[in-house]
Amino acid sequence: MSAKFWNRLAFERGLWQQGLLHVAGVDEAGCGPLAGPVTAAAVVFPCHWAESGLYPKLRGLNDSKQLTQEQREKYFDILTTHPEIRYAIASVDVEMIDQINILQAAHRAMGLALDQLQPPAQHVLVDGRPVKSLRVPSTPLVKGDARCYSIAAASVLAKVTRDRLMVEYDRRYPLYGFASHKGYSTPQHLASIAEHGPCPIHRRSFAPFHPVEQELFEADESQLQAEAPLNQQSSTLPLPPAPAISPASPPLNP
Prior knowledge:
With 254 residues, the chain is an alpha/beta fold. It is 45% helix and 12% strand. The protein has helices at 3-7, 10-16, 49-52, 69-81, 94-100, 102-116, 149-172, 178-181, 187-196, 211-235, and strands at 23-29, 38-44, 86-92, 123-127, 138-141.
């Protein structure tokens, strides 16, 4: 196995070597769109891959945004049919997004996905910044979906699942073109909103309906980019030793 593929299992291997056999990668899809749910996935690879390496058919797996739709669909099928890979997917709907804000909704979707895993994850590798509401010890990895295979796998499952949901919504609300833009603020989508007004799956707390929520998300993303070099340095694992384990935080209040 080449160093390139081996290194993207470094975070999982470090934890497996500590005796933590159930390590989940977690990521979300759909924080930015004006419509539809936010979706998260959790993926657990078998710990014996510490010795054998990544399943060969998954080589090339990457951040879902770096893959074509055809590639995402291919990896989705492999991930969901491999007998040793465990996964779970959860979505939080528009009503909840508008009620608690998109960041909290994304974190809630992550927690819901993790709650479905059996046996439960012992440690979580999460893309981006720390998620304090997780009930499981976690390690945040800036750009983790491009550095860690289990996070990349979660990003693919979340993205494909959400895209499929938006295609279904396109059939229900055909005036908006959801099948093509998946709810993002394309010129076509904005023109449809201007002409027809919002439909039931539009996020009323987002611009152009309400500017505060979108500004909150954009400000958080800007802060993440500014902090990325520091966070990346602090979360990078030498191999060995394994990554530092953050204590689990109390559950998010409902």
